[in-house]
Amino acid sequence: MRAVQAKRFGGPEVLEVAEVAEPAAAVGQVVVEVAAVDTLFLETQIRSGAFAEPFGVRTPYVPGGGVAGTVVAVGDGADRAWLGRRVVGSVGVRGGYAEKSVAAESRLVAVPDGLGLREAAALAHDGATAEALLEATGLDAGDTVLILGASGGMGTLLVQLAKAAGAEVVGVARGPEKTGLVKELGADAAVDATAGDWTEAARAALGEGGADVVLDGVGGEMGLAAFGLLADGGRFSAHGAPTGGFAEIDPAEADSRGVKLTGIAEVQLADDAYVRLLARAVEAAAEGRLRPVVGGTFPLERASDAHRAIEERSLRGKVLLTV
Fold it and tell me: Which one, of 157, 173, 194, lies nearest residue 318 by Cα?
């Protein structure tokens, strides 16, 4: 079968389509015939070699962790009722960029008839993670929330979910096209990170009290600047690192201000939590209450172009591979 391989670490050009053996389902696993594959900024960082060691990735390998498709085989101990069903789920950090992929049945969610497989794939990681972030920060009606990276795959979901929860939402994105999308999705204000001093614009949009919650999907200096916009006693989630590192918030300063810090550890989900939260996002999307924004789709043969689009931040929303 066809799969995308990285035979060495490096730039997007290291991703090439190759013929590999078809996978077989082990105990408790299923084989999914893949229709669409989620892509993440993290996958570009692993491919470059920067984040390979923490995830135990060695070359050659097939990237990709979130898939949507149809179950075509089940292993021993797996429920045969999965056969023929449309599903979405996580396969880890390897094996998704392929015509077929193996997944544990404990990390699968059935896709309702009212939802396309591409839209389901866009939720494979970001849907569950966005729901987890709102739980971890205790976002509630009446809160004012600042969302960094609001036009990205997960940011667009966070804008919608936070607004549906009754929060006042201020989204930060880059350029008028992306801030326009953030407003279209329901944000009360959208701040252009490329126009002058974005923190001053954000402060004006947040009001005198500042943000009750900051959801930092960007990290680095931008995340650190957003910490200054958080009200004392607020909640700060430093879960994003596309800038190369998470926002380095001083725990002592956070403690002195009564700020609750959460981060990437709070969204490393056990199977039961992952399935519960992904199912919630999938149901909301199927019912039209949540809109996965797919900004670009690329066939397997153009996986390198998909990674370039992610790294260049040239597209709004989620970038997918299609099979």
Answer: 157
